[in-house]
Amino acid sequence: MLIHVNQEDRQFHLTNGQISYIFHVMKNGQLGHLYYGKALRNRDDFSHLQVYDVPTGATTHVYADDPAFGLETLRQEYPAYGNSDFREPAISVSKTTANHVPHFTYDSYQLLDGKPRLEGLPATYTEEQHEASTLQITLKDEFLQAELLLNYTIFRDKPAITRSASLKNLGTGELVIDRFMGASLDLPDKDFTMIHLAGTWSRERHVKERKLETGIQSIFSLRGVSSHHHNPFLALQRPEATEHTGEVYGFNFIYSSNFLMQIEVDHYDMARLTVGIHPFGFKWNLKPQASFQSPEVVMVYSDQGLNGMSQAFHTLYREHLIQGQWKKAVRPILINNWEATYFDFNEEKLVEIAKSASQLGIELLVLDDGWFGKRNDDTSSLGDWHVDLNKLPNGLESLAMKITETGMKFGLWFEPEMISPNSELFREHPDWAVGIPGQHYTLGRNQLVLDFSRPEIVDYLYEKMSAIIKQTNLAYIKWDMNRNITEAFSQKLAVHEQGEFFHRYILGVYALYDRLTSEFPNVLFESCAGGGGRFDPGMMYYAPQAWTSDDTDAIERLKIQYGTSFAYPVYSMGSHVSAVPNHQTLRTTPLQTRANTAYFGTFGYELDPVKLTEEERIEIKEQVAFYKQHRELIRDGHFYRLLSPFSKNETAWMVVSQDQSEALIGWYKVLATPNPKKQQTLRLSGITASNMYKVAGSERTYYGDELMNVGLPLPTEFNGVNGGSAERGGDFQSQVFYLQQIEG
Ligand code: DGJ
Predict the structure, then answer these.
(1) Is 350 exposed, middle or buried (0-12, 13-18, 19+ CB in 10 A)?
(2) Confidence category of residue 56, pLDDT binned at 50, 70, 90
(3) What does the pLDDT read at residue 73?
(4) β-strand 105-113 against 132-141: which pairing, if any?
(5) How would you classify residue 84: left for phi > 0, otherwise alpha for psi between -120 and 50, otherwise beta?
(6) What angle do CA 250, 153, 205 make, to 5 degrees?
(7) Which of 480, 578, 582, 605 for mutating ligand 1's site (highest number of atoms within 8 Å of CB)?
(8) Does residue 58 surpass a pLDDT of 80?
(9) Is the CB of 530 under 6 A from ligand 1?
(10) Would you name the residues annotated as active-site residues?
(11) Are the C-beta atoms of 650 and 664 separated by less than 8 Å?
(12) Do 580 and 310 meet the contact criterion of CB atoms below 8 Å apart?
């Protein structure tokens, strides 16, 4: 058990030797936070870590029956507003018939080995009980007749804690929840830089930084998806911390819809972090005896800088979020026909692509958008999940067979959550679309959203999709979602229930994912939302990989993949080599650089192989073979960011095997430098100082300490006069190095 309980003083210390999380019951019966950070040795009493004496006077607010106590300056676990704490709370809940300030006081605790699953929601999990310990604290509000359960899980060998909350109505009348966060954390000071990932379509998850300041700083989504614009990730970095050293706290929300992550810095420079479902527009009617469960918040602590934080997320997600066979199985190298053909294809063309790709060693063909209904552009047919016999007269089954005969597996694109106004489905069920009948509505990419808060609609999609999976013996599904949700009303909810819509919608999406992945565990799912609009850990629970961005430009991808790696494992990032000039930027980059970027992800191609030259085919064959040789290392290794595209003309990163016997290094230079430095090196990380390593393709050997402190020499760069001997040059150049240990 990784949890110490001092029953007498009602104190709780979660620790695994790497981190400590400590709280206790305060004298008013609520929970007070004492510490979260690097592991502390256990002791009976930690209550001195919080000062309770409140000086009375004009500027403080104290309890009328205890002038030495007030919440205004206290660190708490799950605060409410209105009882002398003026900061934004974790919870706001009321009766419909009486006034009351929520006052949840400690009732009891329970210790569990392992970690219980969260019903209907994605969350981290354990397979063996020894992998984690869980503490559940029950608090009660007698007036509300409600029970609040706070869940804390600490993982045995990871600097990670997960938190969530659930509320049960024990009374006979309805309760209304206006705000119910997954976690709240009061930090003693504001001496941090806040790092988050922001962007938009085709430039997702760029790294943004700002120093914490007095007031509220937040990131959020109100789009019905986690969004291209803000990822549900946030880090707090101490000023002295770097990529490799120092203290960083990381937070990630396992949820794919409206979220809020905010930090409120108060007048004493204390910082309150709250993470949860965005309270704007949210209102949940909690019926008697019903419970509401919040999604889960993941908190990791690193004393090894940002890389340490990212590695903590990566290993946690690889082992305790991604499920089933996809934790370990290698993922197929795929070719997707989207950028090769867009909507303009037929069976012959697809089989031709499959044959040609199969000869290159590629393993799976994904037939993207346009195979169903009458969809020759993006103005129709979403919802009509039957094959377009004009394009594919022999049907999907025959196509799947022909693809399989080329030696390739077959995958299909779906956009299950959507409905085109011009579709058979809409003509039959106009009320299935999200919106308000007869009132203004908004289109996104010419389409409307299906009301996934309604179970009968989710059932309909399940029937349609499962029939096609069986019929085609499908190996892979790309699940797309190309617009955000507007006019967010369900025709099946009463007016006072519409605040439940967004959450009910995403529960419907999770339910469909859950049914399909349970029924078809061999199908590999790749999530997608117009590229990276839903790249979040909620999706990762069902779909072990996600299409990172619609932007396939290798140079843009440096920033996108670098940012994404802050929270998510490289082996979850769909990354493909595409044709040049690139379709999103019109940039022309070398084929080598396109592959060198895409290797650090789940690799694939997004081009027409039939149009390749013989030299390109030879090069691609080698790329495919190279990736096959190294994909286990990319899947299981520790990822280190070395040089940032956000601050430099060069980017570098590397993956090191867990036993540090091999490593793959990617180095990229955006623009050429005239008369560049003669001796260029790249300092590595994470390898063993005393190991001797050999660089593949050269006879040179180096000790690990040389590579980490002096650096790996980069090949000679073109400098205007060394044309004959230069090994690299020009814009958009890159190199991938493979290191292997040759002696201990
Ligand atoms: C958006 C996706 O991100 C693309 O890869 C492609 O699947 C299109 N949708 C198809 O409509």
Answers:
(1) buried
(2) low
(3) 86
(4) antiparallel
(5) left
(6) 25
(7) 480
(8) no
(9) yes
(10) 480, 550
(11) no
(12) no
Q: Which pair of structure tokens corresponds to residue 18? A: 């790497």
| 292 pLDDT tier (thresholds 50, 70, 90) | very high
What distances in angstroms separate CA 201 from CA 336, 382, 483, 565, one per listed residue? 19, 21, 11, 18
Residue 197 has pLDDT above 60, yes or no: yes
Beta carbons of 130 and 153 less than 8 angstroms apart: no
Give the 3-state DSSP-derived string for 278-345, with helices as H, strands as E and coil as C.
CCCCCCEEECCCCEEECCEEEEEEECEHHHHHHHHHHHHHHHHCCCHHHHCCCCCCEEECHHHHCCCC
338 Cα to the center of ligand 1, angstroms: 7
First to last CA, the chain: 37
313 CA distance to ligand 1 middle (Å): 28
Q: Is the pTM above the cut of 0.85?
A: yes
> Does residue 55 register a pLDDT over 80?
no
* pLDDT above 90 for 67: no
Cβ burial 272-293 (10 Å sphere, 16+ → b, else e): bbbbbbbbeebebbbeeeeebb
On whether the CB atoms of residues 89 and 262 are closer than 8 A, the answer is: no
Give 12's strand partners: 5, 23
CB 234 within 8 A of CB 290: no
Bridge partners, 577 (sequence order): 605
User: Residue 350 in 3-state DSSP?
Assistant: helix
**3-class SS at 29?**
coil
Asked whether the beta carbons of 362 and 415 are under 8 A apart, the reply is: no
How far is CA 456 from each of CA 243, 341, 372, 437, 468, rounded to the nearest angstrom?
48, 35, 22, 19, 19
Q: Tokens for 60?
A: 């403080």
Nearest CA to ligand 1 atom 1: 530
Residue tagged 């300490």 (tokens): 705
Ligand 1 pocket check for 369: Cβ under 6 Å:
yes
Angle between helix axes 347-359 and 395-405 (nearest 10 degrees) is: 20
**Integer Rg of the chain from CA:** 27
